[in-house]
Design brief:
single chain; 427 residues; Deoxyribonuclease I, Chain A; Jelly Rolls; 2 domains; seven-stranded mixed beta sheet; 25 strands
Length: 427
Amino acid sequence: MGTTPLKVMSFNVRWATESPSSGNAYEKWSVRRPILNNLLEAQAPHLIGTQEGLRTPIAQLDNIIADLGPTWALYGVGRDSGTTAGEHMAILYDTRRLALLTGGNFWLSGTPTTAGSNTLGLQYVRMCTWARFRDRLTGRTFYHYNTHIDFNDHPGQVAVITAQIAARSVTTDPVIITGDMNTPGTAGNDTWDAFYDAGFRDSWFTADVTGTKYGTFNGYATPSTSGNRIDWILGSPSWHWSTAAIDTYNEGGTAWASDHMPVVSTMDLEVPNPKTLKLIRSTNLSIANSTTTPTEIPWSSVEVNTGPSSWWSSGAASQIVMPYAGPYLVTMQTCWATDANVARRHMRLSKTTTVSDANTVLATAWPNPASGEPARHGTHTQVINVATAGDIYKMTAMQNSGAALNLTAGVNSAIQPASISITYLGD
């Protein structure tokens, strides 16, 4: 059973304005927006719990989603009335990796289902946005709760959150909590202790590797190692966090994405009992020189099959029948014999019997190797989505310059034979 990383971020993005009270131009959203995007591009998280983001009068959160690209989505409402008004505790997620199953919002109040309510004497209206996700790579489902605790360290705030978590519909699903907690993340603090007593663990203390601690509120200034870590990522004790860090990204020492620095933690997720088919090529296969016609790869044998027997048969050896509609994780292991004259060589997985660029869902290409270079080999992985159960896919290879070459069965004990592994990620 393998693992795959899931990167989680908690980030107070500071509400957007073009007229900062400080008069400092670097606080303007138009100045901070590209810096924030550069930070997110460098970190490449899968899941972000944001605080303070707006949708009106400045479409700050929509700007962030637009900059991240079309595979990103936003979930959440404003705290003022449960629509678009006011600061959001928005959850941003990469749809290539995570599928949103359901979600909701509640207020840190004695009447948590009443939008905009504040019965605890807090300085501001406070709320929490939650979502239940399925990880497309592992099939794992989990809940994410994202909040912004008031300056008033009122134990009632945590009590509302933990009560809502306890009442979630699938109590066996683990939980991630992100937030600007406005209080130090240390034992002996009422908020931290309340979450700990409810069974949640701080990734900063449980991760295998932890970066330098800074005060996460830096006010657009050089961060201090003596400051308080007031932004946290917590979770169920079953999570295995591999890393935790505070990102100090800035541009020129004076330009910052926000007055807070994000906390980023990475967890390792196991693939639970996958339905997997792995096919191998046990003998060499000669690939002729062609610029237009690919060679179908007849797989020699099944190395692993924990799914239905129907998705491959030796009678149609190059053909794979996908048994389910939905997401699949495809891993191709390539291994080519040494050939200094080959300019481009491709392996591709294509839908239907017509192999074309339009039908290709996963392809690899090796550049021209230098003379005497060892055999080329490597692993290439991608998630594909199958529209209809029973769709047929074919694996082919092609090279378009030089003499024929061999797709090999393995050069030595350190290099695995050419293979394809397909894992169904659905329920």
